[in-house]
């Protein structure tokens, strides 16, 4: 018999062309059926809710206790509807074994990772991780990634002047070397880069990821006239992916709206959730999705950008990101530590899209997450509509240092 049935909800899985009122059946922690699901040991009434595949957040920071960005994955991801969270470079080759042992293995959230080309990862805002290139080691990154192919999905580098100084070229070259030899995507943080994005994009190829794509600082996708740099569209045509990575100061409504007006939606909508933005302005991935709804993306588009698209970006589309029967439960990839019986889904009751999704009893442990039905399909939220989040950051994310120096701040994760 079915363990758990979720009845009466609007099931939305754009990757499978589903947008219908359907029952969802879960047995043994796996999705076993959609439609008329029959009797179940437990049934959850989901009328008025939208049920979507477990969200995949492509950009998070979860090395709690080691990186200054780190936050608890289960409290901030799984309980908010994110069943798969991808850490974006908090750990490098030297610090990754601890990240795996103390965070990935202990969390119920399924955690995957981009490995930073800097061996220490992103530990402190006091010194940019690649201001001194001796911290970079493609060889160590390659070795570590080959040891952990089940969880390391790509290489990360941050090219802001706070991290690499005024010339991002050498750091990019070293990160590129690691990702090419591994055959894995390279994720590049572009905010405050002291070279134009056209310079960067010519060096990225199919599957590489530009994160913080809607920031409003140096190195952005818009020219001074507000038009997209021509190289941006050419990069997309080559298969370069553009990820939101909202962060503390890495998302500007005016850039997002200008991009959408020029038919340039993001490929993936991630939060860049970390210690300096989890209490606002990010809160969680679902809140970030609501902002893109407000900017004009449809419900189907934002759900795709937070499920199937990021799953494909990390080459896990056959395992996560859709409601395909048999898709594996959320939580640890190996299933160890999970109770034999599946958990319970969240029940979104928030005006935001599932942003306050919580379980009824314990944590949700499978890939079915109810989110709030969105009236009309397109964003009409009030709140801080139209206001840029850039420039509204809390003091926590600002770390002016090097008195008398270049006034650097640790911006964006
Ligand atoms: Zn980040």
Describe the model.
It contains eleven helices and 15 strands. With 413 residues, the protein is of the alpha/beta class. It has a domain at 55-323: TIM Barrel. Strand 8 (55-60), helix 1 (73-76) and strand 9 form a beta-alpha-beta unit. Helix 3 runs parallel beside helix 5. The protein is globular and about 60 Å long. Zinc ion binds next to loops.
Defining traits:
413 residues, TIM Barrel, 4-stranded mixed sheet, 7-stranded parallel sheet, alpha/beta, binds zinc ion, 20% strand
In brief, what are we looking at here?
With 413 residues, the protein is an alpha/beta fold. 21% of the residues lie in helices and 20% in strands. The relative contact order is 0.17.
* SSE order, one letter for each helix or strand: EEEEEEEEHEHEHEHHEHEHEHHHHE
Query: Within the largest sheet, what's the order of strands?
Result: 8-9-10-11-12-13-14
Spatial extent as radius of gyration: 20 Å
Shape: globular
Structural class: alpha/beta
CATH homologous group name of the domain at 55-323: Metal-dependent hydrolases
CATH names the topology of the domain at 55-323 as TIM Barrel
Q: Average pLDDT across residues?
A: 84
Fraction in helix: 10-25%
Record field, number of beta strands: 15
Largest sheet: 7 strands, parallel
Distance between the termini: 45 Å
Number of alpha- plus pi-helical segments: 11
Amount of beta strand: 15-25%
The CATH C-level name of the domain at 55-323 is Alpha Beta
- What ligands can be seen in this structure? zinc ion
- Residue ranges: pLDDT <50 for 5 or more in a row? 329-410
CATH architectural type of the domain at 55-323: Alpha-Beta Barrel
């Amino acid at each position: 018999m079915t363990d758990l049935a979720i009845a009466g909800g609007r099931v939305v899985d754009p990757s499978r062309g589903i947008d219908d009122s359907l029952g969802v059946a879960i047995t043994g922690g796996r999705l076993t059926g959609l439609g008329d699901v029959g009797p179940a040991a437990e049934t959850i009434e989901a009328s008025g809710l939208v049920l979507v595949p477990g969200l995949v957040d492509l950009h998070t920071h979860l090395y709690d206790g080691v990186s200054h960005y780190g936050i608890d994955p289960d409290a901030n991801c799984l309980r908010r509807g994110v069943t798969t969270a991808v850490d974006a470079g908090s750990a490098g080759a030297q610090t990754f074994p601890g990240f795996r042992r103390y965070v990935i293995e202990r969390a119920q959230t399924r955690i995957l990772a981009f490995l930073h080309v800097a061996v220490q990862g992103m530990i402190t805002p006091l010194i940019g991780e690649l201001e001194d290139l001796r911290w970079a080691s493609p060889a160590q990154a390659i070795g570590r990634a080959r040891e952990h192919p089940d969880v390391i999905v790509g290489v990360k580098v941050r090219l802001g002047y706070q991290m690499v100084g005024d010339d991002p070229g050498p750091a990019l070259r070293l990160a590129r070397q690691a990702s090419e030899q591994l055959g894995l995507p390279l994720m590049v943080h572009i905010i405050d880069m002291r070279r134009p994005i056209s310079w960067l994009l010519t060096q990225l190829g199919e599957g590489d990821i530009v994160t913080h794509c809607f920031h409003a600082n140096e190195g952005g996708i818009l020219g001074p006239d507000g038009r997209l740099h021509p190289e941006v569209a050419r990069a997309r045509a080559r298969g370069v992916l553009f990820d939101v990575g909202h962060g503390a100061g890495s998302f500007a409504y005016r850039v997002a709206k200008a991009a959408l007006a020029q038919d340039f939606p993001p490929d993936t909508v991630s939060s860049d959730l970390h210690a300096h933005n989890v209490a606002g302005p990010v809160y969680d991935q679902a809140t970030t999705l609501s902002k893109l709804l407000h900017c004009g993306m449809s419900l189907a588009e934002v759900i795709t950008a937070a499920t199937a698209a990021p799953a494909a970006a990390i080459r896990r589309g056959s395992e996560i990101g859709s409601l395909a029967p048999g898709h594996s439960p959320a939580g640890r990839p190996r299933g160890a530590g999970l109770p034999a019986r599946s958990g319970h889904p969240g029940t979104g009751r928030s005006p935001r899209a599932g942003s306050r999704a919580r379980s009824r009893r314990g944590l949700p442990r499978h890939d079915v997450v109810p989110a709030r039905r969105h009236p009309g399909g397109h964003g009409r939220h009030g709140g801080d509509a139209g206001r840029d989040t850039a420039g509204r950051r809390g003091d926590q994310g600002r770390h002016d240092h090097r008195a008398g120096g270049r006034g650097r701040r640790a911006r964006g994760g």
